[in-house]
Design brief:
About 45% of the residues lie in helices and about 25% in strands. The protein has about 650 residues and is an alpha+beta fold. It folds into five domains: about 120 residues, Response regulator (Rossmann fold), CATH 3.40.50.2300; about 140 residues, 2-Layer Sandwich (Beta-Lactamase), CATH 3.30.450; about 90 residues, Beta-Lactamase (2-Layer Sandwich), CATH 3.30.450.20; about 70 residues, Helix Hairpins (Orthogonal Bundle); about 150 residues, Heat Shock Protein 90 (2-Layer Sandwich). The strands form six sheets. Strands 10-9-8-13-12-11 form a six-stranded antiparallel sheet, sandwiched between helices. The chain has a five-stranded parallel sheet with strand order 2-1-3-6-7, sandwiched between helices. The longest helix has about 50 residues. The radius of gyration is 51 Å and the shape is elongated. The chain binds adenosine-5'-diphosphate (ADP).
Length: about 650
């Protein structure tokens, strides 16, 4: 044996060391000697010996411990242990530590050389084995890496591609490649004929794949469909999977959609008797999962496209204009009505910033003022006289939708109605004044009998009612047409106290318990004192009117965040829920308003118009049969509309 190997002798200087050196040199070995622990470490690192011969102790270190540490770093290094005495316990320890041989005195040259040669041989065998193992493991790792690579690429293509045919063909191709089989197919059940057809295939003739049909009931793939169990086999002689179709080996895995098996992924070998392994089965299951995900993705995509098309058709055919915006106020969708309203032609505006596409000033102010009250209705006026009502509604995670409705027609009707009311009211006022005047004179020109007096009384009260109505209409007309622009510093407390003084007799007559809470030092507010008096008057009068005798009324005035809040609470008849949304409309009276309680149904609409002209808010909270609360909130620094 050629002794090219280097032996490291780790031993303090002694007769034994000399003997060992001599014996090994004469046998042709190269030697390195380490007499200290430091020297040992250095020799180990610098020379990387083939064999280590180590003494029981090296300086203060135990030779066995040093051997163990060495084996941890170089697991295949043969180590011969030299013990000064023969002790079976020491032999056992050395063997347990993984040392390869053991020598002890009396040492003979032959025995020393034999021990080293034996270890050397062992070392070579070990080296060969390690090399073989490394090669084998590397090859198997390479296969696994390739498999992983194929699977990762496949999963990317499933996520990135919506072309189902090409994704499924890739799955079948991967199945054939990763299992090393001759051909592969993805079969799906045709629900109408209850047959399997080939959705994708690899290494099949195209015509064969296209016309492939297999009855579910009597085929091996059908068995997988029916049992949901994988089939895998390798036979000595080919087996039938379909009439006149024979294979040696095969794997069929079920494709399961929401618990129902409606497809099979298969690979087979017709020519070679090549068996499949468990690992191949596992790979096929993974690939089957990929195929299922790809098919489900495609189905979801088709469904969502279908839904989108349906939604687009619906929106395109709506009578109202619709503009869908993303969070950056870019157009996601705009229907033809909205395009026509803003004169935008037919071009595609998708992704365009809406304020670039639509330059109408009212539209701009709708988009810029939405932060304070998103659901508020806005009017959008065009130079040609058209008026649209627009509503902005935020949509979480999307952006917002703006709907617009052409209200030009209603606006015109409203104008006509106002003109009509205006004319009628004016025309009625003078005859009414003379009717009332003459009725008042009647008693003065001659004595009337009781019946005549009663009749005159009726005429008087009806004429007064009509006068009241006409006056209310004129007030409303003035407010709505914006003639009412006077503004001054208003002390709400003074107005309220004045109103309460005027109504004190009515409160007393009905034995009402009236409580008044006025926060001291309320700020003045800018507004029209005449109109704000009407607000207070109307609400307090209503509370008195609609509260039966002995009821309670509480009025209060206070200030919060630069706003004056006025509320009137009563324990009266309340307002039915169905009537509550309408009581601020003109001429509306709730269904429970007593017939003998006079009223025109105009008071609250006047109140609402005045409050809105002062940029305030009004609302009602009421429990039918129990009472009502009217709340008015007025900003103190407002300027009535011009
Ligand atoms: P009216 O002249 O009929 O009082 P308003 O416009 O002032 O007209 O009020 C409209 C309707 O609202 C009333 O007819 C009545 O049905 C209801 N209403 C108003 N205030 C009250 C109240 N405090 N309690 C119960 N119902 C009320």
């Amino acid at each position: 044996m050629a002794n090219k190997d280097l032996v490291l002798l780790a031993m303090e200087g002694s007769v034994t060391l000399d003997l060992l050196e001599r014996a090994l040199r004469s046998a042709g070995y190269d030697l390195v000697t380490a007499k200290t622990v430091v020297g040992f470490e250095k020799a180990l690192n610098d020379t990387i010996p083939t064999i280590l011969l180590i003494a029981e102790d090296l300086e203060d270190k135990n030779g066995l411990d040093l051997s163990r540490a060495t084996l941890e770093r170089f697991p295949t290094m043969p180590i011969i242990f030299y013990a000064s005495t023969h002790d079976p316990a020491k032999v056992l320890d050395a063997m347990r530590a993984g040392l390869s041989d053991y020598i002890f005195p009396p040492l003979k040259i032959d025995a020393i050389v034999r021990a080293v040669q034996h270890s050397q041989k062992h070392s070579h065998q070990m080296g060969d084995w390690v090399r073989r193992e490394v090669k084998r493991t590397t090859a198997s790792l390479e296969t696994r890496v390739n498999e992983m690579d194929t699977l990762v690429k496949l999963s990317h293509s499933i996520n990135a591609s919506l072309d189902l045919d090409s994704v499924l063909t890739s799955v079948v191709t991967a199945a054939v490649e990763l299992t090393g089989s001759e051909e592969g197919s993805l079969l799906m059940v045709d629900e109408t004929t209850h047959e399997l057809y080939m959705r994708a295939g690899k290494n099949y003739e195209e015509g064969y794949a296209r016309t492939f049909r297999l009855p579910v009931s009597d085929s091996m793939a059908g068995q997988v469909i029916e049992t949901g169990e994988l089939i895998s086999f390798c036979k000595d002689s080919p087996d039938k999977i379909k009439t006149s179709y024979l294979v040696y080996s095969l794997i069929y895995v079920p494709l399961s959609f929401n618990g129902k098996v409606t497809g099979v992924l298969g690979v087979d070998n017709r020519m070679a008797k090549r068996p499949f392994t468990n690992h191949h089965e596992l790979l096929m299951k993974v690939l089957a999962d990929f195929a299922v995900i790809a098919i489900q993705n495609a189905q979801l995509y088709t469904e969502s496209q279908h839904e989108r098309a349906k939604l687009q058709t619906t929106i395109a055919n709506l009578q109202d204009g619709v503009i869908l915006l993303d969070n950056e106020k870019r157009i996601l969708l705009i229907n033809p009505v909205a395009k026509k309203a803003f004169g935008l032609g037919l071009k595609d505006l998708t992704n365009m910033p809406v304020l670039e596409a639509i330059t109408n000033n009212d539209f701009k102010s709708l988009l810029t003022s939405i932060t304070d009250n998103p659901l508020k209705l806005h009017e959008i006026a065009f130079e040609d006289g058209r008026v649209f009502s627009a509503q902005y509604s935020p949509i979480p995670n999307v952006g917002a939708v703006i709907t617009i409705e052409d209200i030009s027609h209603f606006k015109m009707l409203d104008r006509l109605k106002s003109d009509f009311i205006h004319t009628i009211s004016h025309d009625l006022r003078s005859p009414l004044t003379s009717i009332i005047g003459y009725i008042d004179l009647l008693e003065r020109v001659g004595t009337l009998n009781q019946q005549q007096k009663d009749f005159v009384g009726h005429v008087q009260s009806s004429a007064r009612h009509i006068t009241e109505l006409v006056n209310d209409l004129l007030i409303l007309d003035r407010i709505e047409t914006g003639f009412d622009t006077r503004k001054e510093d208003v002390v709400m407390e003074t107005i309220l106290r004045f109103t309460l003084e005027n109504l004190a007799q009515q409160v007393k007559d009905k034995h009402l318990d009236l409580q008044v809470n006025i926060e001291p030092g309320l700020p003045v507010l800018r507004g029209s004192s005449m109109r704000l008096r009407q607000v207070i008057d109307n609400l307090v009068v209503n509370a008195i009117k609609y509260t039966p005798e002995n009821g309670k009324i509480r009025v209060s005035l206070h200030c919060k965040s630069d706003q004056i809040i006025f509320d009137v609470v009563d324990t009266g008849i309340g307002i039915p829920p169905a009537d509550q949304p309408h009581i601020f409309e003109k001429f509306y009276r709730a269904e429970n308003a007593p017939a003998d309680t006079p009223g025109t149904g105009l008071g609250l609409s006047i109140v609402k118009s005045i409050v809105e002209n002062h940029h305030g808010l009004i609302w009602v909270e009421s429990v039918y049969g129990r009472g009502s609360k009217f709340v008015v909130v007025l900003p103190i620094n407002n300027e009535p509309d011009k």
